[in-house]
């Protein structure tokens, strides 16, 4: 495989010295870019875009042509695994993802297909291989999956949810069924991410988007223990290179110490926690990723730069920080504001790495 020309992102995750703080954006390949919208229209629908390796590669590379980003992230969706398990994923206009056959019983869990990453999910691996080839070693490629809890919310609710009543009903009235599902999902995610690593991703990230809707005890029971199982089951080195693992729980700032205990390399932070406080709590055990409020990208260039400066100062001197938004970039953010953000991170961070 080609040697990395810019390994700032990998080095930061491993808490090794860098010249500047690396930066990338969650959902950096997506609907805020007009060139993405054109490719999406060409593909016909979202999943057709995901399943076409050349088009998935194109939209992965688009933000790198506009911005001086330190990493690319595979263009895919967290719901590829439940879709491959046979739940019938489809998208309602304006309503987001839906499942034709949501999980309602033990029989539904027992009947789930355990997908083959080079079978039902081969289109994802084909995209990884294509992107790695076309990146030509310019920056690392990040692979990802949804966490078992987050995937289960969609599988049980049948789609997006605000109150999560169906999955919480199962958690509190029939926990053994939910644990069986989460265990199955953990095994599938381990296989899926290890296959991504074999196909060429150089770092992996678990998105626990809905872990923050749980109480502290239930977070440990239904989310974190399964992420820990995945961390333990992943290839942490491949072809002589370390493969860093990042865990991100939205609204998970109260559990940083427990997340660090999983053995992950980095913790993603949303914007509801102070960076200095997070660093003080986890010390040098893990790197930190984040954590500007995505809505700050609606502000003036000066205000965006000021916020970048504040977060850099909050983290302070030394390695172990990957700059990012606290969640995905909003679809109506002007691309020129994203450029201000990325450039400000590089321009203002060198002083912290002398």
Care to describe what's here?
There is one protein chain. The protein has 354 residues and is of the alpha/beta class. The protein has a single domain (8-353), classed as TIM Barrel. It contains 15 helices and 11 strands. The chain has a 7-stranded parallel sheet. A two-stranded antiparallel sheet has the order 2-3. β10 (287-289), α14 and β11 (321-322) form a beta-alpha-beta unit. α14 (301-315) runs parallel beside α15. The protein is globular, with a radius of gyration of 19 Å. The mean pLDDT is 97.
Describe the structure using short key phrases.
seven-stranded parallel beta sheet; 47% helix; single chain; alpha/beta; TIM Barrel; 354 residues
In short:
By secondary structure, the chain is an alpha/beta fold. The chain contains 15 helices and eleven strands. It has helices spanning 8-13, 34-43, 46-51, 53-66, 80-87, 106-110, 122-135, 148-157, 165-173, 175-199, 216-233, 256-260, 275-282, 301-315, 335-349; strands spanning 72-73, 89-92, 96-99, 141-146, 203-208, 237-238, 241-242, 245-249, 266-268, 287-289, 321-322.
Question: How are the elements arranged and paired?
Answer:
Blueprint: H1 8-13, H2 34-43, H3 46-51, H4 53-66, E1 72-73, H5 80-87, E2 89-92, E3 96-99, H6 106-110, H7 122-135, E4 141-146, H8 148-157, H9 165-173, H10 175-199, E5 203-208, H11 216-233, E6 237-238, E7 241-242, E8 245-249, H12 256-260, E9 266-268, H13 275-282, E10 287-289, H14 301-315, E11 321-322, H15 335-349
Parallel strand pairs: 1-4, 4-5, 5-8, 8-9, 9-10, 10-11
Antiparallel strand pairs: 2-3, 6-7
């Amino acid at each position: 495989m080609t040697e990395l020309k810019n390994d700032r992102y990998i080095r930061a995750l491993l808490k090794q010295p860098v010249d500047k703080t690396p930066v990338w954006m969650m959902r950096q390949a997506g609907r805020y870019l007009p060139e993405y919208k054109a490719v999406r229209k060409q593909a016909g629908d979202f999943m057709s875009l995901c399943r076409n390796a050349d088009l998935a590669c194109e939209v992965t590379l688009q933000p790198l042509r506009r911005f001086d980003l330190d990493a690319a992230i595979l263009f895919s969706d967290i719901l590829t695994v439940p879709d491959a398990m046979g739940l019938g994923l489809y998208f309602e206009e304006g309503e987001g993802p839906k499942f034709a056959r949501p999980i309602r019983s033990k029989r539904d869990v027992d009947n789930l297909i355990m997908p083959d990453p080079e079978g039902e999910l081969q289109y994802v691996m084909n995209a990884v291989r294509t992107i790695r080839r076309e990146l030509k070693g310019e920056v690392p490629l990040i692979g990802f999956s949804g966490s078992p809890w987050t995937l289960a919310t969609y599988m049980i609710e049948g789609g997006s949810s605000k109150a999560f009543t169906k999955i919480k009903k199962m958690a509190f009235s029939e926990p053994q069924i939910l644990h069986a599902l989460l265990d199955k999902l953990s095994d599938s995610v381990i296989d899926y991410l290890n296959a991504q690593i074999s196909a060429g991703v150089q770092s992996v990230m678990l998105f626990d988007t809905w872990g923050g809707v749980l109480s502290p005890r239930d977070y440990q029971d239904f989310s974190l223990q399964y992420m820990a199982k995945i961390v333990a089951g992943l290839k942490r080195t491949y072809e002589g290179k370390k493969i860093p693992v990042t865990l991100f729980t939205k609204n998970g700032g109260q559990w940083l110490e427990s997340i660090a205990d999983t053995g992950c390399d980095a913790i993603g932070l949303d914007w509801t926690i102070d960076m200095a406080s997070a660093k003080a709590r986890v010390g040098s055990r893990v790197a930190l990723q984040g954590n500007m409020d995505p809505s700050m990208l609606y502000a003036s260039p000066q205000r965006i730069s000021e916020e970048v400066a504040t977060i850099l100062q909050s983290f302070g001197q030394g390695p172990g920080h990957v700059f990012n938004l606290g969640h995905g970039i909003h679809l109506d953010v002007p691309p020129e504001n994203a450029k201000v953000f990325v450039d400000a991170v590089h321009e203002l961070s060198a002083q912290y790495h002398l």
